[in-house]
Design a protein that fits this description.
Helix content: 40-55%
Radius of gyration: 23 Å
Number of strands: 14
Strand content: 15-25%
Number of helices: 15
Length: 417
């Protein structure tokens, strides 16, 4: 933080003595409306902040199937519909969502006094900035990924628009959270953000339970050895690498099948590529699965692969590792901070199908070591990435942000140490 609070005197912090905060969280997705990993992150954070005694209100996008308000695990979930909910242009739809969010909170603030607003990515940036000003409360933002990072630069008008929205939100935020040192360095380089404005708090994962058998989900897996991968089906997740690896495995007559779960705009394209290359017996893109199905498929696999080309953190790796599976991840982004090669997992060259196959071959030929790596991975995830710890660290950042705001206000009134 930019202030050394222990050196400050005559700072009025009496309303915040017990640190039972009323927290406003803005996120465009929240379970059971799941688009990607963002919703699970906000769910884990908000439920554990509530468990700590904070009053948490989440404002998110609604659907016709879900109620406008419900209390879920002590979290107040408010769902709003964009003013132009039928608009098929995503940027227009997001603009309408932000207007609806700001309007909802304005009404809610007549009954609830919020201490801080916590925004998640540029998708809710316009509402967050408006609410910071209208409610006169500090704005904390978690940047989960950037348009520049996803596309290795800014190349067209839409990317430039999103990049500018990210820049505006970063500038207007009083404090920023990122999930890895990799993302911290990216924000400093791309947006010239100051080091003092950034806090690094990782994503989290809860212990997972296995209640199903993989073969009941995918009958083709009976008596088959398979390798599992999961993620949003977009270019930056690197699933092209698995397609190439499956083709190499077929040429080498390896008796393994790759199973990739997830939904996204590239799903149909990848499924067509699999058919065109006659890889239907080597590779399955199975689309959306439930958490229970995910756990079962991880549990039944030989090992897991997360082949991302761009990955600020890598929560999917935590999910496979917490179930004790030896996991191969790309040596990039936040994932290289989670995995130590040949200790808690394996690192592969991003986009290198041959290198991926070499890592797979190494694990298959050394089953005892693979089991040991899987267990060490499980232990490190359990000890470092539990949501209770992460919520506690996030709460401290919120407290510091509020204190800094109070210090600045008192300094503006002429109060000095």
């Amino acid at each position: 933080m930019s202030k050394n609070l222990s050196e400050q005197v005559e700072v009025d912090v009496s309303p915040l003595d017990h640190w039972h905060l009323t927290i406003l969280i803005l996120c465009w997705e929240y379970p059971p409306n799941v688009v990607g990993g963002l919703s699970r992150h906000v769910y884990g954070l908000s439920t554990h902040l509530a468990e700590m005694g904070h009053e948490v209100h989440v404002i998110t996008a609604g659907t016709h199937e879900l109620p406008a308000f419900e209390r879920m695990e002590n979290v107040n979930v408010h769902r709003v519909k964009p003013l132009n909910e039928r608009d098929h242009h995503f940027l227009s739809w997001i603009a309408g969502l932000n207007l609806a969010m700001a309007f909802q909170v304005k009404q809610l603030s007549e009954k609830v006094k919020f201490d801080i607003v916590h925004a998640h990515d540029w998708l809710v940036g316009a509402a967050a900035i408006t609410l910071k000003q209208s409610l006169d409360i500090p704005l904390l933002t978690t940047i989960h990924a950037t348009e520049h990072g996803r596309n290795n630069g800014i190349h067209n008008e839409i990317q430039q628009f999103i990049h500018e929205k990210e820049s505006q939100l970063i500038t207007e935020s009083d404090q920023l959270i990122v999930c890895s040192e990799y993302m911290k360095n990216e924000l400093i380089k791309v947006f010239q953000t100051t080091d003092e404005k950034l806090a690094v708090i990782p994503n989290g994962v809860e212990p997972l339970t296995v209640d199903l058998k993989a073969a009941t989900i995918i009958p083709e897996l009976v008596q088959r050895r398979y390798i599992f991968s999961i993620g949003r089906i977009v270019k930056e997740k690197g699933f092209d690498t698995i397609i190439e690896a499956a083709e190499l495995a077929k040429e080498q007559e390896l008796d393994i099948v790759f199973v990739i779960a997830g939904k996204g705009p590239m799903l149909e394209t990848y499924q067509k590529q699999v058919s065109a290359r006659k890889l239907d017996k080597q590779l399955l893109f199975i689309g959306y699965i439930t958490d229970e199905q995910r756990n079962a498929l991880i549990h039944g696999s030989l090992l897991a692969v997360i082949p991302s080309l761009y990955e600020p953190f890598g929560i999917a790796a935590l999910e496979t590792m917490i179930l004790g599976k030896p996991t191969i991840v790309s040596n990039t982004g936040g994932m290289k901070g989670i995995v130590k090669h040949l200790q808690t997992g394996l690192l592969m060259g991003p986009g290198d199908a041959q290198n991926l196959l070499e890592q797979i071959d190494y694990l298959l030929n050394n089953p005892d070591l693979a089991q040991e790596i899987g267990e060490k991975g499980r232990q490190i995830v359990k000890s470092l990435y539990g949501w209770k710890r992460i919520a506690s660290e996030s709460s401290k950042v919120m407290e510091d942000t509020l204190l800094n705001k109070r210090v600045c206000e008192n300094e503006q009134r002429g109060i000095t140490k």
